[in-house]
Amino acid sequence: MADPIPTLRSLDNLVSDYSVFERDQVLTEAQLNSVAQYFDDQDRLTRVELIGVGIVGGLRAIISGGKVVIGKGVGVSTDGDLLLLQTDTTYDYIKPYDETAPFYSPFYINKGANMLKLWELVKEGESDVRKVPIATLPGKLSDYAVLMYVESYQQDHDLCNAADCDNLGVMATHTTRMLLVSLADAPLLLTALSTASSASMALTAVSAERPKLKAGITTTSILADLYRKANNNTHSQLVQALPALNTYLPGLLIEQFGSNPIPNWIKALETHAALFALKPPNTRDAGIQYYYDFLKDVVETWNSLLACLFENDSVLCPDVGAFPKHLLLGELSPAQGTVPSLRTGLYPSPLGDRKLRERARHLVERLDAMINSADFPQPSASTIRITPSRDERAPLEQRAIPFYYIQKPTSPIMLAWNPTLTARKLQGNNQAYQWKSYMGPTALQKDAYAVQIGAYDFFRIEGHFSQKIDNVMVVLKTEIEKQNLPITVRAILLHNDKKKIKVRPPRYTDLHRFH
Question: With the C-alpha atoms ordered 241, 247, 248, 250, is the resulting torsion angle positive or negative?
Fold first, then answer.
């Protein structure tokens, strides 16, 4: 038996040069072929690397009246072949597809010793002496999946004898065939490429636990214990979830930081947690709510990263050998609307997902900046400020930067907070309690109310820790009146002794007016 004809795969060996013709030059077949091969490779590379691979759309296969109907559609193989079916097509016969066909390694198992059992679909009305009725197929038609395959090979048609050789040249043939493969063998032809989207499914979303406030909170210690329990659970979720990012997407971290920053993140998180750990008699309660807010910031950024990664199914430089000459169209179903599982996916080029990749890089940069620049010192008298911000319905980057993030040259929170402002070199437009320290020693304190504030529906009050409540209320009321802010401030005593109330609420308020 003669050796089988090998399948022609173009991108396994790229042509890197070609001949440039000169006047009166005698051309050889190698020079002419080099031009064709070079530009064919470039066309294929453009499809694979700049457009994408897989099934672009259509190519749905169903059973209808005992026949196979395949809808029009298009896809691209990892060898750069454009697989096109221009109209819905019905197939009513089959014929064997066996070892007499060109050798295509994905069709062979046991180290190439045995070929998968395949049948070729024959179009309705097409004559072929080898065709047999679909009903002769072993088993039920629904036990099969459809494979779209480009049979590519070269054949030398030279007519040679002992005295002469009629040189007819080599013919390259590329024929699209529709094949049936059993559901048991179809998974061998289904290659799923690794994407950020698939990796995100292996990462764990984290929930920031909510402290359940209830009646009976009569001291700050009771309140702090509720926050401490919630914080400990949220912290545990984070330190368990973060390492998987380097496991499944190490390139994202290497590209951004040059190494894996997660061990340092976890070390910093453990340091923050230790400040508020329950270790009597040194238990610290003051500032625990800010630590809770910080953990919420980290959780929100982490979950935003997962959502961003899930949207990104692009592949950079897909493996040429993944599905070089075939696309698996899915198992045959009796009706439209059934979603096939044995179907080659679509993997677009990263060129189209550039903004998603930039967004992911920004989110890991913000995680790094938040974890490394968070600071929870013992409360001391500070300047009381009311900073315009947004409530939690707005993305974190659109809110004011809380005062518990300090300026660190190695992790500048101002640059990492809002990527849009940073890209436009407008990071100074972020609202922040520590705006002046972020912008440098020569910067004047920002007047947050010098421009309209209609876009802000939340106001952060910071700098009041450790100060007397009656003094704080005077400062806040003065600032509210001075800036004509649409808010009212009330002081709450965490105690059941009413005699300790220093700032009493007014007897008649808006609530009374409603009643």
Answer: positive
What is this structure's pTM?
A: 0.85
3-state class (DSSP) for residue 330:
strand
DSSP per-residue string spanning 119-179: EEEEETT---TT-EEGGGSSS-GGGEEEEEEEEEEEEE--EE-SS-EE---EEEEEEEEEE
Closest to 69 measured CA to CA, from 61, 81, 77: 61
Using 50, 70 and 90 to split pLDDT, how confident is the model at 1?
very low
Pairing of β 385-389 and β 458-462: antiparallel
Q: Is the pLDDT of residue 4 over 60?
A: yes
Dihedral sign (CA 177, 183, 184, 189): positive
Q: Could you give the 3-state DSSP secondary structure of residue 112?
A: coil
Burial class (CB in 10 A: 0-12, 13-18, 19+), 4: middle
Q: Strands (DSSP E) along 358-512, which ranges? A: 385-389, 458-462
Separation CA 18–CA 32 (nearest Å)? 8
**Nearest to 402, CA basis, from 461, 457, 443, 469:** 461
44 is written with which tokens?
A: 């294929």
**CA 394 – CA 480 distance, rounded (Å):** 24
Burial class of residue 481, CB neighbours in 10 A (0-12, 13-18, 19+): exposed
Q: Helices 354-373 and 262-275, interaxial angle, to 10°?
A: 40
Residue 398 is classified by DSSP as G
Looking at residue 427, what is its pLDDT? 93
3-class DSSP string for 236-269 = HHHHHHCHHHHHHCHHHHHHHHCCCCHHHHHHHH
Strand partners, 331: 145
Mean pLDDT lowest among 12-16, 291-295, 297-301, 398-402: 12-16
What does DSSP assign to residue 47?
A: I
pLDDT at 511 over 80: no
pLDDT one-digit tens code per residue, 116-162: 999 999 999 898 889 999 999 998 999 999 999 999 988 776 555 55
Please state, in angstroms and rounded to a whole number, the distance separating the CA atoms of residues 296 and 230: 11
Q: SS3 of 216, please?
A: coil
- Listed in order, strand segments (DSSP E) in 34-107 are 52-58, 61-64, 67-70, 73-76, 82-85, 89-97
- The predicted-structure confidence for 446-480, as pLDDT tens digits, reads as follows 899 999 999 999 999 999 988 888 899 999 999 99
Inform me whether the pLDDT recorded for 163 exceeds 80.
Answer: no
**Predicted pLDDT of residue 445:** 85
What helix, strand, coil percent values describe the chain, rounded to 5?
35, 20, 45
For residues 168-202, one letter each, b for 16 or more C-beta atoms within 10 angstroms of the residue's C-beta and e for the rest, the string is eeeeeeeeeebbbbbeebbeebbbebebbbbbbee
Q: Are 329 and 147 in contact (CB under 8 A)?
A: yes
